[in-house]
Design brief:
Length: about 210
């Protein structure tokens, strides 16, 4: 079990946030937003404490070829059917962890982690969620004290045995013996483009409105 089925995540995000017009044609990434990147894409663009555990969704290109960004309060859907197993604080908001079982696979399951969001009221441990259900909105990073714009962090992991989700934090996620992190680009099932570091968009992300 080395991969996961692709998800309709982007289609659901478009639908739930009224992005059909002008559209979301491609996700756009600067190198620091990618899985296993060793550095930041914001502020001083310095080194990360640990390699990036997932993917940062922030920029996209519309059908008029404009590069736009996700804004706070963007509604965030769940990728697969699952059960909410943990909500942890992160440096911009909260991270929601959802565990998924796949009966058609031989063994093990998976989990998806959605970082920097404000969970919906009433969301609680043990809540069953269907793919496409909205679990929260992008957090307002202006209240955090960090110089980073609102963005969605997604981590995807294969679970090979019992795991204590209450002990899973951003300090331990990369060291878990039972969680194998995957590149979310292989799961989100949408067109994308990776820009070079010297692209004006990547050089001055703070100018995005």
């Amino acid at each position: 079990m080395s991969s996961l089925n692709r998800t309709g995540f982007t289609e659901w995000l478009i639908r739930e946030n009224g992005l059909d017009e002008p559209g979301l044609k491609d996700w756009i990434f600067c190198p620091g937003m990618l899985f296993h990147s060793g550095r930041k894409w914001w502020s001083d663009k310095g080194a990360r404490d640990t390699p990036h555990e997932g993917l940062d969704l922030f920029l996209y290109r519309d059908r008029q070829d404009r590069i736009l960004r996700l804004h706070e309060n963007t509604r965030i859907p769940v990728m697969f059917d699952g059960v909410l197993v943990s909500i942890i604080n992160d440096f911009l908001g909260n991270s929601v962890i959802v565990e998924h079982a796949f009966p058609d696979r031989d063994k093990g399951g998976a989990c998806t982690i959605y970082g920097h969001i404000s969970p919906l009221k009433g969301l609680h441990m043990g809540r069953e969620l269907k793919q496409g259900d909205i679990m929260g909105r992008l957090a307002n990073s202006g209240r955090s004290g960090f110089e980073v714009m609102p963005h969605l962090h997604i981590s995807v992991g294969l679970v090979s045995g019992p795991i204590s989700y209450d002990r899973l934090t951003w300090d331990t996620i990369g060291d878990s013996d039972t969680l194998t992190l995957l590149d979310p680009l292989n799961v989100i099932n949408w067109q994308y483009e990776i820009l070079d570091d010297d692209n004006p968009i990547c050089r001055d992300l703070s100018s995005m409105t």
